[in-house]
Amino acid sequence: MRITEVEVIPVAHREPPLLNAWGIHSEQEARTILRLTTADGTVGISETYGSDAVINELRRVAPTVEKSSPHDRKKLELRMQRGQNRGGVGAKAFAAYETAMLDLIGRATGTPMYDLLGGKVRDEVEFSAYLFFKHADRDPSSAAIAPQEVLSPEAMVEEAREFVETHGFETLKLKAGVLSPEEEVRTLELLAEKFGRDVPLRIDPNGNWSVETATKIAKELDRLELNVEFLEDPVPTMNAHARLKRNTKFPVATNMYVTSFNEVSPAVSEDAVDVVLSDHHYWGGPQKTIELDRLCRTFDLGVGMHSNSHLGVSMAAMAHTAAAMPTVRYACDTHYPWEADDVIVGGPIEFEDGVIPVSDDPGLGVKIDENAVDRLHEAYTDDPPERDDSAKLNERRGEWVPNAPRF
How many domains does the chain have? Predict the structure, then answer.
């Protein structure tokens, strides 16, 4: 089986004005659809980031991929992670190729992708409600969920109600670092009052708190007896995480400071984290993510799953990968409910009581909606999005300089 055609298709989809520690999401987000076709017409697909760097790297190696077998991935991986691409753009681009190749093999052999990763350990994957403070959508009628302004703890409770009632989520994650830490603690308290004191809660300030502030907040969360699963990237460095861990009983999670295998050793040596949030897009593909799961189990670290502003192809890949990861014991993150656009036939994939059943169909179990891809590719071509959260917030609030820690 030989790959004869590689298609790199940038797309742009609608994005709500979600706030974070660095600024605000743009109104459009760029993603890239990768499609591989063999001589007999079998197709494999994947989805990844939409930056120029990733697109250029995908295109740079396309001539090599077009002469290769989807089984021959190791040499491609090594070629793409040399020099400046090591652990960065090369890893992300290779992850896209590996996912598409696994989808291709799965479709050719009638095998679900989870079986190509060693077999599933769960039939369904649980996800958390990913809650953001936000400005009002400029076109509320086009929003997938929660088009209203959410800039207070009380408004966040209403947003969470929509997520829980619409998708059945049982774990609530708050993207923090936006309001004052005290107001964000009050937000968690109101969520617990609304949905029950036992509801699992998470808070993610994206490194926007000092160790002193994070220690103070952790003590307050403990006093309130909230069911906090972990503090995610509360402080701005790995060293700061290690200092904080000496001051709190809550587990500390990261997707900012352990993002490659060469960062695992110092994290363990410094006792800096308890939970590593994986992401097959930048860990180098689904198989590398399975390796990460095994490594974390060796060091008794917890594993979860980070997300980004992804569409249905990535959603399917996340579900298959998580289904094959024994150490995943936390509900995975996902931006997916926020997205009003999709590129898959029959999309979006539906949550059932906060979980997604893992497809038993060959490969990823999803197919490209050609009309949707054409429409979103045209949107990208007409106005290529450039993600700059700080610049976008400048347009709304005047001069905005993100500084970590800000509190």
Answer: 2
pLDDT beneath 70: ranges in the chain: 82-87, 387-403
Closest CA to 318 of 151, 125, 30: 125
Q: Which residues are CB-neighbours of 380 under 8 A, at least 6 positions away?
A: 10, 11, 12, 30, 50
Q: Which residues of 182-208 are buried (b: 16+ CB within 10 A; e: fewer)?
A: eebbbbbbbbbeebeeebbbbbbbbbb
At residue 200, the 3 state secondary structure works out as coil
Pair (91, 139) in one structural domain: no
Any domain includes 82? yes
* Paired tokens of 325: 């990861």
**pLDDT of 194-237, one tens digit each?**
999 999 999 999 999 999 999 999 999 999 999 999 999 999 99
| Residues that are catalytic | 175, 306
The alpha carbon of 15 is separated from its chain's Cα centroid by a whole number of angstroms, namely: 15
Question: Helix-strand-coil percent breakdown of the chain, rounded to 5?
Answer: 40, 20, 40
Same domain, yes or no: 252 and 132: yes
pTM of the complete model: 0.95
Per the domain annotation, does 390 fall within a domain? Answer: no
Residue 393 lies in a domain: no
Largest CA distance in the chain: 64
**Distance in angstroms (rounded) separating the CA atoms of residues 152 and 42:** 50
Give the model confidence (pLDDT) of 171-189 as tens digits. 999 999 999 999 999 999 9
Q: Kind and range of the H or E element at 265?
A: helix 264-269
What are the backbone dihedrals phi and psi of residue 380, each rounded to the nearest 5 degrees, phi first?
-65, -45
Q: How far apart are CA 210 and CA 21, in angstroms?
A: 13
Instruction: Determine the structural domain holding residue 200 and report its residue range.
Output: 118-363
Whether the CB-CB separation of 98 and 77 falls below 8 Å is answered with: yes
- From residue 13, how far is each of 66, 336, 346, 375 by CA, in Å? 28, 12, 17, 9
* Together in a domain, 158 and 241: yes
Whether residue 89 sits in one domain with residue 124: no
Residue 151 lies in a domain: yes
Region class of 179: left (phi > 0), else alpha (psi between -120 and 50), else beta: beta
Residues 75 and 217 in one domain: no
Quick: pLDDT tens for 50-106.
Answer: 999 999 999 999 999 998 999 999 988 888 875 444 458 889 999 999 999 999 999
